[in-house]
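hiii, so i know i said id send this last week but things got crazy w the move. better late than never?? heres the sequnce for the chain we talked about at the cafe, plus the structure i predicted for it. fair warning i was half asleep when i ran it
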Amino acid sequence: MTIALTPVENIEDINDIDVGLRSLETTAAEDLLRGLSKRDLWARLGWLDVKRRYRRTTIGPFWTSITLAVYVVTVGTVGAALWHQDIYEYLPFLVSGMIAWTLVSSIIMESCSLLIAGQPLFRSIRFDYSILAYALVWRNFLVLLHNFVVYFLVVLLLKPSLLGVTALLAVPGLALVFVNGVWIALLLGMICLRYRDVPPLVNSAIQISMLITPLFWPAETLVGSKRVVFVDINPLYHVVDVVRAPLLGRVPANISYVVMIAMTIVGWWGTYAMFKRFRRRIAYWS
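okay and structure toks below
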């Protein structure tokens, strides 16, 4: 079978073809907006991924909740004695912090493999990359709902007074975390796809950050320059604080909201600039 190719007569024809091809391309803004509008698709992708992870198990994602409960009870018992804390105060502090930390750390670590795992998909078909980011955040939201069962059990048993109106402030805190989670997923997804040495570095950084962020110990135990380093200028502390403080019956510090809003603006600005510049190359990075 012979295919006849129409010759390009002059440079104007080449330019016309180039413009025509570019018009078929999806821009970064269209990718983000169209991906967000396809809620049924990314919601189903996130849900199916949760089901896939716990296939052939009896209690499914509640295994994560059981693991968290055992961790909180064992570490909480030791931590209360180590830092001379009242266990009725310390266990709610630990479980609320771990719920927020598990959400944030999972989003960050899973973002490293976001585009690597999706390469077979978008190499074969035209695909909005942002759908994968939205699905990742949605998937972690579903896991978060299961982990909240542990929080309610601990609080109901030890300090029911925490379940007040102030706890509702965790909702806008979580909304800020999810909005930031999308740009983190896209940014780390692109960087880790291009540079495969980055994922191990991110995993190591998360493990270290877990120890130096006030999760197991109250931030009030630090004063002076140590508090500035490990609390005030630690963005992960503020991310945790906007979720943990309401769950402990406190209003988050104003600085935590300021940091979160600044992270949202700067993070989305930088991610969009990078996504706009390198989006067309993603399918060819290997």
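btw Residues 1-24 have pLDDT under 50 and may be disordered. thought thatd interest u
miss u guys!!
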